[in-house]
Automatic annotation (TrEMBL):
It comes from Branchiostoma belcheri. Keywords: Methyltransferase, S-adenosyl-L-methionine, Transferase. One of its GO terms (molecular function) is methyltransferase activity. One of its GO terms (biological process) is methylation. SUPFAM superfamilies: S-adenosyl-L-methionine-dependent methyltransferases. One of its GO terms (cellular component) is protein-containing complex. This is Protein-lysine methyltransferase METTL21E-like. Pfam families: Methyltransf_16.
Length: 235
């Protein structure tokens, strides 16, 4: 089945091979060893493998484009944990989230790669977008996230509204949102961007080197906040 065919909850598992495999990366001068488990066994396979935008964002973080030291970070759709692990190794206080059946393997990967060298032990939490969001502390409970991040989270139109609600819930005017997007079905995926822009201002579109126009890292803030007045952005 070609990847250009629209994905939905019924056919997404048909687009991925069934296997376990180890993936090796090197970030922050360290090897990061990740296991992709049971790929292709059910309809939530999308969270069981490393997707390209996650690797792209890690390169941005490693270069220091978005300072992580002592920043509080919430990752949505963290999958097997690559971005959250790299952010933790760079000194951030990270909470990684994904569906309940995904977090088991994520937690194993996070634990194995962050035993040493992390100022803040990363936390892994189950989260279904749009549901029981209060179970993870956010601005309403007095918790500020410097960054809310998500990579390759725009893929099923059915959950666009829930993702938008979740982003609004965990952001405050000082939060920087980073969304790494690979537009596979551009007409569909841009529908989320239009929905997202109702509440957030896209500050900058970071182009992914060598990837043409189909991959972009969006940097955004909630509307009504002037980024130029934020001293945290003067880095």
């Amino acid at each position: 089945m070609p990847m250009t065919e629209p994905m939905n909850r019924h056919n997404i598992h048909e687009q991925l091979p069934r296997r376990d495999r180890m993936q090796l990366y090197n970030f922050t001068g360290r090897d990061v060893v990740l296991w992709e488990r049971n790929i292709g066994d059910d309809g939530d396979d999308i969270g069981k493998r490393v997707w390209p935008s996650a690797v792209d964002l890690c390169h941005f973080l490693q270069k220091g484009d978005f300072p992580m030291q002592d920043k509080k970070v919430l990752e949505l759709g963290a999958g097997i944990g690559l971005v959250g692990i790299v952010a933790s190794l760079l000194g951030a206080d990270v909470t990684l989230t994904d569906l309940p059946n995904i977090v088991g393997n994520m937690e194993e990967n996070v634990r194995a790669n962050t035993k040493e060298g992390c100022k803040y032990p990363p936390k892994v939490r189950p989260l279904v977008w749009g549901r029981d969001l209060h179970k993870i502390k956010g601005p309403k409970e007095g918790v500020h996230y410097d960054y809310v991040i998500g990579t390759d989270v725009i893929y099923i139109e059915e959950v666009f509204h829930d993702l938008s609600v979740t982003l609004r819930h965990f952001c405050d005017p000082r939060t920087t949102v980073l969304l790494g997007c690979h537009f596979r079905v551009k007409s569909r995926d841009l529908k989320f961007i239009e929905l997202f822009k109702k509440d957030f201002k896209i500050v900058k579109e970071h182009k992914i080197p060598g990837q043409g126009v189909n991959k972009i890292l969006f940097e955004a803030r909630m509307k009504g906040f002037d980024v130029l007045d934020d001293p945290a952005k003067n880095h």
